[in-house]
Amino acid sequence: MDKNPSGEDNDDIDWDTEDELEIQDTVFSSCTNLRTTGQHVVCSSNGEASSSSVPFQSSKFIQQFVVMGFTEESIAKAIEQNGENSDLVLDALLTFKALDDSPEEQPSTSPQLEPSISSDDSFSEYNENILDDVYEEDSWSSDSDNCINPVGRCYLNDEGSSLSGNEKTLLFLANMGYPEEEGSIAMKRCGPEASLPELVDFICAAQLARAEDPYLPEDVKPKLKHILNDFGGYKKRKMYNGLCKRKKPREISAEEETIRLPKPMIGFGVPTEPVPTMVQRFLPKKTIGPPFFYYENVALAPKGVWDTIKRFLYEIEPEFVDSRYFSATQRKRGYLHNLPIENRFPLFPLPPRTIHEALPLSKKWWPSWDTRTKLNCLQTAIGSAKLTDKIRKAVEKYDDEPPLEVQKYVLYQCKKWNLVWVGRNKVAPLEPDEVEMLLGFPKNHTRGGGISRTDRYKSLGNSFQVDTVAYHLSVLKDLFPDGINVLSLFSGIGGGEVALYRLGIRLNNVVSVEKSEANRNIVRSWWEQTNQRGNLIHFDDVQLLSRDCLEKLIGSFGGFDMVIGGSPCNNLAGSNRVSRDGLEGKESSLFFDYVRILDDVKSIMSRHR
DNA sequence: TCGAGGATGACGAATAGA
DNA sequence: TCTATTCGTCATCCTCGA
């Protein structure tokens, strides 16, 4: 692999070497808007907001579809028909795409599809039953070269399309290479509420079952290579770029659900606990070795979420770990990765593992009836001053220990908001720098640079626990003695980068994708303060990382050694009372961009080898 | 005085485990 | 059945600078 030649010992490095310029030029050509700051490059989707070294060729409205992979001709046509209405234009573009991909299967004129429907008794019966159903699922189009990713949009059966919902579903299944008969059977078996991914799941499962049936004649077995993609995953994963926005997530039955949270939650092992006796670790052959990937999200997600994540990430078993075994705060997270698990080592010095070790000044004021030794999960919001005042008034009425009822109330609030004792009868939320310390970040990592206190809590609450992640990533140190090229998705405040740096793994090239400008500034500032000698390239939107863009980045670096990231948990987190919609939620559906990008990286790199 | 941005506080349910 | 926990959201209020 072509690593960045910049030596760690060379202090006189020239950031404008031909290599650096080549990288910058390459990225320039694939981004809609760029700024450069020495070795730091920013690729932004906001083409109108800032100057660009590349002429902005089309309006932002058009550009959003260009990024998705549609041609400007088709976009123009769609706009002409629908005006500048994003949903209608996207709907039209998807219809164009579907029709273009299989012109012989256009339902209105197709001699193949329609006869098939009408001649299939079972489907006809089904079709009559659900004729009035409105198709409210997102759909997507697939192309081997272009990634089309209408995340968060609905594919409605409106005037812009002449196809019924059922016909569209069948057409998409046909475009994906599934026989019409199987598509119609799946639609019947899965029911009228079934989404396209569910139908694909059903077909894949049926094909796999038939392929592995020893009693079935070979000539009627489906070809496995048509079912599995290059990496052992189901073919449909490539198609699962966008997701429907369903009002009610599909319930996973007890039979379907396979993932259980381990107890104790120590994954494949932690430094401070005995190694679990039965560690089952199966990696599909195609996932072994680089590029390594590391995906993170909340462990306590709605039922079935981790089953879905596992299904889309090569059926690898996730590793659930509570950061309480690494620090003084709990953080129950699932990590799904293809890293080796032997010879891990922790970061030194080992972080404090109790509240009193982490916050020694609090010990003096800590009442004996508050038996906490660990903090709960650090979240994005903190307790209010009003609440701490209420607690003070409740406790100071009593010279001695307050009655049990008061103790119970105070403890409930302290646990809920992670309040700590900072004076006689006085509790307070953690300061941002204390949160930084508990999560393994350097002091003042998020301080200054224009970020508000509220946003610091938010960014920290959304980040990795560095010691936990570093323990998992530690196996990379021996594998990449010359440094590593990292694609960091949903980087946040750079937890992955900080972990690698603290492990002593040199960061040669880091492509970091992060929506929040404040977070990008934090990572850039950390990059500069730690005198990183590699290249940091920032993107502000995962959807900018098209296959074409990834091809160019990989061509420049020689490939990514690591794809790391935790997609948004907003719609998975238990604290969300408003929109806990699962992986189909507005933000959390970006998980499928992680899958798409990882698939693309693996695919491109397999061709480069 | 006004607007922008930060701070505050009210808002349960899903899930696991005892 | 009960208890404990949870990388959150959003309307409103407050602060500050022009």
Summarize the structure in words:
The chain is built from 23 helices and 11 strands. With 609 residues, it is of the alpha/beta class. The strands form 2 sheets. It has a 9-stranded mixed sheet, with helices on both faces. The protein has a two-stranded antiparallel sheet with strand order 6-7.
Rg calc: 26 Å
Sheet with most strands: strand arrangement: 1-2-10-9-8-11-3-5-4
Q: Sketch the major β-sheet.
A: 9 strands, mixed
Structural class of the helix and strand makeup? alpha/beta
- N-to-C span: 9 Å
Residue-averaged pLDDT: 73
Q: How much β-strand is present in the residues?
A: 5-15%
Strand element count: 11
- Overall geometry comes to globular
The number of helical runs is 23
Keywords: DNA-binding, Methyltransferase, Nucleus, Repeat, S-adenosyl-L-methionine, Transferase
InterPro entries: C5-Methyltransferase (IPR050390), C5_MeTfrase (IPR001525), SAM-dependent_MTases_sf (IPR029063), SAM_MeTfrase_DRM (IPR030380), UBA (IPR015940)
GO cellular component, one term: nucleus
Pfam families: DNA_methylase (PF00145)
Brief overview:
The chain is α/β, with parallel strands linked by helices. 37% of the residues lie in helices and 9% in strands.
Descriptors:
single chain, 609 residues, alpha/beta, 9-stranded mixed β-sheet, two-stranded antiparallel ribbon, 23 helices, 11 strands, disordered N terminus, DNA-binding, transferase, DNA (cytosine-5-)-methyltransferase, C5_MeTfrase
